[in-house]
Amino acid sequence: MAKHGDGLTPMLEFRKSGRMDECTFRYWKQFWKEMLPAMGRSIGVRFDPKFNLDGHNLWRVSLGDLRLADATLSTVDQEYGALRAASHM
User: 81 and 75 in contact (C-beta within 8 Å)?
Assistant: First the structure.
C-alpha cells in the first residue's frame, strides 16, 4: 500500500450495516479476505483489502487498484465494456 506524505493512498471505504446475522457476516468477511483478492488475481490486479487501518472498523481498498481493474475489464471483457458504456448513456 502506497503512502502519500503522512497519509495513505486514496482508498474507498466500506462498512457493514450492523444488520447482518452471523452467517451473512461470515460471507462479508470471506468476500474481503478471499473472494475480492481472487477476483483480482483472475485479471492480474492485486487487491489487498485492509481492515481497521486507523482504528475505524472499515474495509478499505485502494482506489488505484479499483481503477486498474476497471480499465483491465474494459479491455478484456466485451460484455463488461458494453455494460460500462450503457451506464454512461
Answer: yes
User: What gap in Å lies between CA 30 and CA 22, rounded to an integer?
Assistant: 12
Residue 88 grid coordinates: 454512461
In a domain, 24, yes or no: yes
In a domain, 56, yes or no: yes
- Three-state SS string over 27-76 comes to HHHHHHHHHHHHHHHHCCCCCCCEECCCCCCCEEEEHHHHHHHHHHHHHH
pLDDT tens by residue, 9-68: 788 888 877 888 999 989 988 999 999 999 999 999 999 998 887 777 888 999 999 999
Separation of alpha carbons 2 and 28, rounded Å: 25
**Residues 43 and 70 sit within 8 Å (Cβ to Cβ):** no
Domain that holds residue 55: 10-87
